[in-house]
Amino acid sequence: MLSDVVRLTQDMVRVPSLSGDEARVSELVAGRMREAGFTDVRTDRNGSVLGLIGPEDAEVALLFDGHLDVVPVVGDWRFDPFGATLHEGRLYGRGSTDMKGGVAAAICGVAAAAREGKLTRRVGVSASVLEEVIEGHALGSVLDLCEPAAVVICEPSKLEVRTGQKGRLELLLTLHGKPAHAASPHLGVNPLHAAARALLALEALTLPTDPVLGRALLVPTDIVSSPYPSISMIPSATTIRFDRRTLSGENADDVLGEVRACLAAHGIDGYTLSITDDAVQTFTGLEARPSRWLPAWSQPEDAPLVKQAFEALTRAGVAPRSGCWPFCTNGSESAGRRRIPTIGLGPGNEEDAHTIDESIALDQLEAAKEVYKQLTLLACAA
User: Fold this and answer.
1) What distance in Å separates the CA atoms of residue 322 and residue 148, rounded to the nearest whole number?
2) Domain that holds residue 126
3) Strand, coil or helix: what is 367?
4) Residues 26 and 153 reside in one and the same domain
5) Is residue 290 part of a domain?
6) What global pTM score does this model have?
7) DSSP secondary structure string for all residues of 96-112
8) Residue that is last in its domain, among 257, 281, 305
9) What is the domain count for the chain?
10) Nearest C-alpha neighbor of 32 from the set 116, 167, 127, 121
11) How much helix, strand and coil, in percent to the nearest 5, is found in the chain?
12) Structural domain contains residue 155
């Protein structure tokens, strides 16, 4: 007979939930939280589900957070991507690792801790939306509701403690030109030439390095001219989108200033530089334009939450290990913006996220449930 954490993961994977279309899985999770004994379950304005358990007049000691949305299915899969097939000790399906397995383990682990009757403080599980589109935006409204003392991001980490992550800043560099007929290019100013020079200059830019998080990155991800296509005409502008992976202590003004200084040193002018704020819409109909400035964060391994996580892993029979994430998570909101003590700790391999035949090991799900149970008990004993 399948355990509760495996069955819940299967049920969640079988509900497709692209970003902005999480209504069905949100309803499923809310119902399962109530069945598991969570005494306060609510769906916020974005559609994220928050379940709380423990003494109602106590503070929220710990919040486990995971997201419900998944990336699109691409390529040829061995198994139905929404079939939640069990095969040779693994559960296959889109979102199994990233990250419905982590959400299921948190729900089941916290509920198991509560059944022991030892919770002296409240503990919550957040099943948030839209994370694959914009990290941290939806978690913000959940944090407003419960104000936890600490947060665990349940993204896949091989059940190793992640003590930090790089941040993300999405930039638009628009080079302005002067349109002219392509047969008379000397009458115009071609912004593509400036774009080429800017790409080469910024590729050679020396970026900062952090002893924990490693080297910052600046990666061009797309380029488009206006108008597009520009048939038989010098375009009036060309825009390059950059993904800048940031380090602890960097802020948006620092990064913008660094790019401007580099462009000036190479004689490039006639441009605008901005941070993206593309519109998003939740399945509840709420619209927003969140800034794509997601701060990095890190904390020392002797921080109380890290020590508790190591103890919980030891109690669960898992060797404690630590590291950092190179990618961005909802921790940018809890730790990066709000300075709430935060760690990452989740089942599954990061490398399996967003892949064809995404899957998660069943023993990782079971171990995560036990780790979360022990961490809940430790948080309530503190």
Assistant:
1) 23
2) 4-165+296-381
3) helix
4) yes
5) no
6) 0.94
7) IIIIIHHHHHHHHHHHH
8) 281
9) 2
10) 127
11) 35, 25, 40
12) yes
